[in-house]
Amino acid sequence: MTAPIRHADQLFNDVFLPDETRRIRREVRQFADDVVRPVAHRLNTTPESRQSFPHPLFKAMGAAGLYKIPFGADVGGLGLEFPTLATVTVLEELGYHSPSLASALFDGQAILVGQTLEHAGPLLREKYLPKLVRGEFVGSFATSEPEASTDLSPGNMQTIAEKVEGGFRISGTKRWITNSVAADYIAVLCKTGQRQTFLFADMRAPGISVSDPDRKMGNYVQLTADVNFDRVFVADDHVIGNENAGLRAALGALMLGRMGIGAIGVAMAQAAFDFSSGYISRRKVFGKPVAAFQHWQFRYADYAMRIEMARSLYQKAALLYDKTGNAETEAAMAKVAGSELAVDMARDAIQACGAYGFVQTLSATGETFPLESIYRDAKIGEIYEGANEVQRWVIARHIFGRDITG
Ligand SMILES: Cc1cc2nc3c(=O)[nH]c(=O)nc-3n(C[C@H](O)[C@H](O)[C@H](O)COP(=O)(O)OP(=O)(O)OC[C@H]3O[C@@H](n4cnc5c(N)ncnc54)[C@H](O)[C@@H]3O)c2cc1C
User: Fold this and answer.
1) How far is the CA of 362 from the centre of ligand 1 (A)?
2) In whole angstroms, what is the distance from residue 50 CA to residue 255 CA?
3) What is the pTM of this model?
């Protein structure tokens, strides 16, 4: 299948972006087109297994310097002026071909684990971040549990870190943990008394076991699994941030992750838009292209506007974070806008393309089609890294105040 026209280049103008971000977009697009696109269909349609963690792609991303983009020169990063803006731009470019690859290998690795280490204190930052930047280890970020995820209050959490001589012993189960089947290290949020502490554990430590990957509706490259802790020892110097202040540290990384989910949503919407707008310009019904019907012209005009708005939102959130160190409301807006757009666009793109939208591989010709995996992959964006209802709550807090919203 020939590559569809990239409408973002015509309809969206990176006019406000700094030169360094535009350069990163060009370079990462080249990488994504050369390295991810040829294997994207296989990646996006092969169900999860222990063997399916894409080690070669992880290594290729490290070798191409992608993990340098978010970080300062002192830990081997690029030292960009607007690192968050560049980071979310990377996610859009990778997510255009494989949203779950972008989510697992860049949002999970570079943002959730990377930003956790960035703010973990000098010892952990200097020991581990240079290795992450060089792509030398796979990390996981674990807050969710079988009975707790949206609500991470101490009363709800069951993974406990007991204080012992020289450190802590962790017992409990974390669920849905991205990359855990391949991880070397894990940042794990634990209950310590009535507070929480975020600990950085070695996945080879005695007492840690990882179950087989979950079989999910989509996001196949994003392998999730339960991680079980049976009195796993973590030394005092592997506390992330401060003892009993773990939730704050975890939520800080998740705020950046949400901008990333917004960017991946834009990527999925753009990919679905590009494929389907090309298809309906060629496919004829009643003697004229499907796109000749004004119904679809208006739909696609509306989506062009929504893509522009969602892209501008994630970029603005990232830029604001780079300039001020906080963008909580904007990150929530970017996440909701991008993730809901992706679901809507994928659904309508399939509708416009009919059976050619619904099919994965056409047996008679061997042709492959992208929309069904985009539709499956889009849904989780509305749920993970903070369900969209919670994001609306965050936004509403800034409108009405916590006294009213709680
Ligand atoms: C592919 C994938 C990867 C993941 N990766 C990780 C990971 O690496 N690390 C990790 O820790 N977790 C991970 N998760 C877990 C993910 O973050 C949670 O699924 C998510 O936070 C939602 O939690 P839950 O599924 O337990 O839903 P629940 O907390 O049970 O919530 C269920 C639903 O309740 C509704 N709801 C919640 N709060 C409100 C409210 N205030 N108002 C109205 N409605 C509300 C929402 O619709 C929500 O979807 C992953 C999950 C998936 C599927």
Assistant:
1) 35
2) 29
3) 0.97
Q: Name which residue leads in pLDDT, 3 or 32.
A: 32
pLDDT at 1: 63
pLDDT surpassing 90 at residue 12: no
Whole-number Å distance, alpha carbon 74 to ligand 1 midpoint, is 35
CATH class of the domain at 253-405: mainly alpha
Residue at token pair 């490290």: 62
Q: Is the CB of 387 under 6 A from ligand 1?
A: yes
CATH of domain 141-246: 2.40.110.10
Distance, in Å, from the CA atom of 162 to the CA atom of 232, rounded to the nearest integer, reads 10
Distance 332 CA to ligand 1 centre (A): 15
Residue 227 near residue 173, CB atoms below 8 Å: yes
How many angstroms is it from 159 CA to the middle of ligand 1? 17
Cα(14)–Cα(202) distance, rounded to whole angstroms?
41
Q: How far apart are CA 353 and CA 283, in angstroms?
A: 8
Cβ–ligand 1 contact at 391 (below 6 Å):
no
Report how far ligand 1's centroid is from the alpha carbon of 395 (Å).
18
What is the whole-number distance in angstroms between the Cα of residue 384 and the centre of ligand 1?
5
pLDDT of residue 126: 97
Give the pLDDT of residue 222.
98
Residue 150 alpha carbon, nearest atom of ligand 1: 29
The residue to mutate among 111, 149, 394, having the most atoms of ligand 1 within 8 angstroms of its beta carbon, is 149
What are the tens digits of pLDDT across the range 144-177? 999 999 999 989 999 999 999 999 999 999 999 9
Second-level CATH architecture of 8-137 = Orthogonal Bundle (1.10)
Residue nearest to atom 20 of ligand 1 (CA): 384
Which of 244, 131, 227, 237 is CA-nearest to residue 186?
227
Nearest atom (ligand 1) to Cα of 112: 8
Confidence of residue 10 (pLDDT cuts 50, 70, 90): confident
Domain borders along the chain are: 8-137, 141-246, 253-405
Under the banding of pLDDT at 50, 70 and 90, the label for residue 243 is very high
- Average pLDDT across the chain, whole number: 97
